[in-house]
Amino acid sequence: MSAFVTLQHVFKRYQMGEVTVAALNDASFEIRRGEFAVIVGASGAGKSTVLNILGGMDTSDEGQIIVDGQNVHEYGRKQLITYRRYDIGFVFQFYNLMHNLTALENVELATQVSRDPLDPEAVMRKVGLEQRLKNFPSQLSGGEQQRVSIARALAKNPKLLLCDEPTGALDYVTGKEVLKLLQDTCRSEGMTVVVITHNLAITPMADRIIKMRNGQVSEVSVNQKIIPVEEIEW
Amino acid sequence: MNAFNKDVFREIKNTFGRFLGIAIIVALGVSFFSGLGATGADMKLTGDMYFDEHNLMDIRVISTVGITDDDLEAIAQVPRVESVHGSYSIDTAWEYNGEAYVIKLHSISEVNTPELISGRLPSRPGEIFVENELSQLLGKTIKLTSGRDSDLRNSLRTNLFRVVGVAKSPYYASLERGSGSIGNGTVDFYAYVTPQNFLQTYYSEAFVQVRGLKGLMSFYDEYTDKVDEVADAIEAVGDSRIVKRYHEITNAAYNNIVNAETGLNLQEAAMSESFINQEALLTSQLVELNQSSQSADSSSTTDIYASQPSVIIESLDISAQRLALESALMELANARAQAMDEINEQRDALDVARARLDDIELPEWYVLDRDSNPGYASYAQDTDKIAAIGNVFPLLFFLVAALVSLTTMTRLVEERRVEIGALKSLGYRNGTIISKYLFYAGAPSLVGGLLGGRVGMVIYPKLVTTMYSSLYSLPPTVTPINYTYWFIGTGIASFFTVFAAVFSCVRELSETPASLMRPKPPQAGKRTVLEYVGFIWKRLTFTHKVTMRNITRYKKRFFMTVIGIGGCTALLLTAFGLRDSITALMSLQYGEICHYDMSVAFSDTAKERDLTNVGDILQEERVEGFVKLKQKNVDSYDPAGLYTTRQASLVVPETTEEFDRYIIFRDRRTHAQYDFSNQGVVITERLSQLLGVSVGDDITIKEDGYPAVDVAVAAIAENYFLHNIYMTPDMYQTLFNEEPEYNSMLVLLGERESTTMANEILDQTGVSSLTFTYATEGTFGDMIKSLNLVVLVLIVSAGALAFVVLLNLSSINISERERELATIEVLGFYDNEVSAYVFRESTVLTAIGALAGLAMGIGLHRFVLMTAETDLVMFSRHINFISFVYSIILTVFFSVSANLFAARKLKQIKMVEALKSVE
Prior knowledge:
By secondary structure, chain A is α/β, with parallel strands linked by helices. Chain A has helices spanning 47-54, 77-87, 103-111, 120-126, 142-155, 172-189, and strands spanning 3-16, 19-32, 36-40, 62-67, 70-71, 88-91, 160-164, 192-197, 208-213, 216-222.
């Protein structure tokens, strides 16, 4: 099976005053279709930069980012938006829901711009929030909000689901539930999921583990012995 | 410098744009507030300095019988009268380039000292100075006439004057020259000569200066009160003077009558005596004759034959003598009767004279203050208007400035929430933490306010007064520092920003440090009322629903936008509305009220047959119609006091029948038409406002050369230019005891070709001028053009206002909701979709604001009209439909451009950072 996502020699530099900082310094890895990949590393290792570039929220300076056969590195501003619009689903640490919209409406916000969206209510049922459709984010718990956020990403029917520290703001139990939801989605829908975390403890549940350090990929390993989320302790 | 202070200054340095923004908006608001606010006061000060410098009289005394030296002496005795000067004046006629003008000739005195422009002041009889408009006459000699049948040299030493100078008099500060007793009743120019030129035995008026008033500002109550006290005292003096004066005049006349009567009596007595003597003589001769004829008869009987022929001759002779004597007696009796008739006739004449003398009323004194001087009064009114407008318009800008700085400060404090929490947890006292924001808000407000106020106080008064400079002959406006407006403006502006800072700080500080350092829970979403109206809500697209929610979510922003946009629309509507009112004025005045096409004025010397001649010409030309009028400028007073006096034109048509073909009397609102009435006069609306009278009240009319009369107001008619008082000829006859002397004509031309006819009419004797209505329209049109400048200023400031508010709002809107916008960008919204998401909101707010603004605009328009109306012009309250459309379109335009400007910011949103940050 060939790679669904391929990063080759990707560089990203930031100009900080007079100093140039390389956030990504020749990073390369690949992820296959339907895999649950985890990118781990300490703060500042460059994992968020990878995710941002992969998600079309930021551009790379050098290298190739091939997603489903397309080179995202060459995309212009408008193409990047289209890419985000049709191909990418994002889940953030702080949910980034619209506070003015109910849970269902938040999902609809995403589906209305998608090409081939899923039924928002069905997705909400899938994430277990069928009772909370009409609630505003402020009326939901953190875990519920993150589920809405996942539902919003999924409803777009993206090619790639990118999650940036999805459990970072959640407690232990809730965090586990969210990770389970992501893993289940990956398995049942065949969705390619990329999760960023600094928590090494959750790596055993992933199909592929990408470790990063100082803007470079230090190790890529394919997990032979996948442990279900429920059994992971940290 | 400790770390806390360093933080304050770094904060300013890092957010300098915002810091500067507060300073600029406060500077703008305060400059407008203090500048326009001070303008009225500055104009008053300029006027006061000018009038003081040129010794404008404080009180003017006129009398129906003139002022004598004794009168002056009596006035001088009144306490606090500094000086009193008698002054002469006379209205003279002057012909120049074929046109007739009226020049009011004054005598130079120490009050109302003229300001020399060129040449020199007159120093001997036969020299004259003229006003600036006649400066081309300098060095020339002008010939003046009386404008009546009499020779001007009965009143003046000469009628030829050499123009030795050009000067202006503080007595004529405006373009108005007052009313005159010759011509059409209007004075065209003024001129001054030395008092020696006048041959009158009494002064025309007395000018009084009151002691201790130079230090007081004219126009203000303190000055007016002091003047009123002295004026009252002078009136009291006047009451006794008029009685004395009355006796002086009447006693002499009575003595003359009594002397004449005594003379007649003596004459009669002498005559009777001589008649009696002559009669006696004749009678005695007759008796003698009879006796001699008897003796002759007796002798003839005795000697009848001897003397027969001689006897016959003798008897015949006697008969003849007798007859002669008898006829002489008869003649004597006749002559006597005739003489008696003559004497009785003279007696009757004396009786009539005595009766008329008895009828002479007490003379009257009018003690008038500066408000009766047209230039002074209209200047005072204009400054009041400026002050009124200067207090309202800036308020709008001020409000916006306060709102803008308020939102800026609130936002700054909210952004620094975590920092405030950190400082608090470090043990800094609340007061210290607040002081940072106090300084951050206070410093730019103070600096901006003080700078802006100072600059505004120079710029705006100059700007405004240039618009008035063509109307008044006053020196350039002085612009002293007006500390009141300066400090109040800066104070209020600083208060608002500092209050906003402190208020938000206190709100934050009331929380515990721990909760402060936790992210602030975002404002919860709420359902809007609209959601419960299912059939509407279901029809809204998804993003429209979001817009509706967002609008109701941020109340503060909602009101700020609605006020800002509303203010913009209101200003625009006012501006366009002003233009409409001014234009409507023309079409209403000359399209709906005045229907005559031409008016012909006759000179004072014109005879009845001159009018008939012109009438014949008009009839020959088959014009649609014409009517003869008496038209005369009169002074009108409200019955309560003499102090509100307005000049109006008294119009008495020869026939009131079908007068509505020429001029329509109607109510402005209901358009109900009125007719002439013998019960009272019809007066024009603006006059009724100025005199403060309504239907049924009395007004006093004083025509030059006639006693003042009181008449009731029968109706108030719509009218926009000048003041008219319409009266029936019957009523005139009753009031003035004489037929009105017609001196003008209104003509309906119909389809008649007019130029040749106009020339023919102008060639007739007695015709002084001929005016086509369309020409009048043109003149007023020019005058009104200057007002267009005001309209432009309003439109520009409205645009600036809208732009400032919307730009501020959009940028706050965008930066406050960066995260939300980043989210939808991540979701793959295209740029235009993101813009639409943001700006749909401001579009709805603009719509609401614009609608509110239309309502505000109608009110503002009305207010501006009321304050800007001059005495002679009344504006129509009407606003055209298209002006509403223009105001809306311009508001939308301003709003869209501000949004486009802000839209650049949208692209600069850093998605990644916005989404990563802690909420």
